[in-house]
Write a structure and sequence with these properties.
It is built from two helices and six strands; from the N terminus they run E-E-E-E-H-H-E-E. It is an alpha+beta fold. A four-stranded antiparallel sheet has the order 2-3-5-6, with helices on one face. The chain has a two-stranded antiparallel ribbon with strand order 1-4. A hairpin with a 2-residue loop joins strand 5 and strand 6.
Amino acid sequence: MPSEPSRDLEAVPNPHPGRDYVVTCESPEFTCLCPMTGQPDFATVRISYVPDQSLVELKSLKLYLWSYRNEGGFHEDMTNRILDDLVAAAAPRRMTVVTDWLVRGGIHTVVEASYPDAG
């Protein structure tokens, strides 16, 4: 049976919680809908984090990102929502989410959001 999109992010135990190390995940196939036109937007999502007690389970991450396919949202909102949901699921020490959007209307957009907030 094929998998279905899901907003249920899962976390698994970190086998090395006493050490700071960086986990980087990249998905070049993120899609959502432009809230103004309804046309598809395409992005590469890069997630880098230093785990604490938990790791983000990768299949749940794939299904989570897939769940945005038919949803409208601005680039900035999508990036911050992804960060908020991942932080809530895995409680990392640090995390950064970068979305690198394909050119639309002659404009290339990259959005970066971090936890804890650097500002």
